Amino acid sequence: MDEDRERGLRTLDQYCLKNYGRPLAVIGTIQLAVTGSPDEIVAQLRPYVDAGARHLVCRIGALDVKAQWEQLEPIAALPL
């Protein structure tokens, strides 16, 4: 989650390169990758909930544990 969507996309790209050896442009064709403000993330995930998804598995695209922990509460607070 990042209020600066472009920065969030760069972080996701770095995460994808480090963990999968492929850029976000490739990984994004295989799985959904979202970033942005809480409202932007809700808008990206809402169609899945509206279609009947009862559970969402969120992989936090952060490169270190501290950054992952910082994302947990905001993710849990999303109004989905």
Set out the fold topology.
Layout: H1 5-20, H2 24-27, H3 38-50, H4 65-76
Task: Pick out its properties.
80 residues, mainly alpha, 4 helices, globular
Give a verbal description of the structure.
The chain has four helices and no strands. With 80 residues, it is mostly helical. It has one domain. 10% of the residues are buried.
The low-pLDDT segments are: none
SS class: mainly alpha
Shape: globular
Work out the strand percent: under 5%
Number of domain modules? 1
Question: In percent, how helical is the residue content?
Answer: 55-70%
How many beta-strand runs? 0
Listing every helix as H and every strand as E from the N terminus to the C terminus, the arrangement reads HHHH
Compute the separation of the termini in Å: 15 Å
The whole-number mean of residue pLDDT values reads: 95
Major beta-sheet overview: none
Radius of gyration: 12 Å
Helix segment tally: 4
Short characterization:
The protein has four helices and no strands. With 80 residues, it is mainly α.
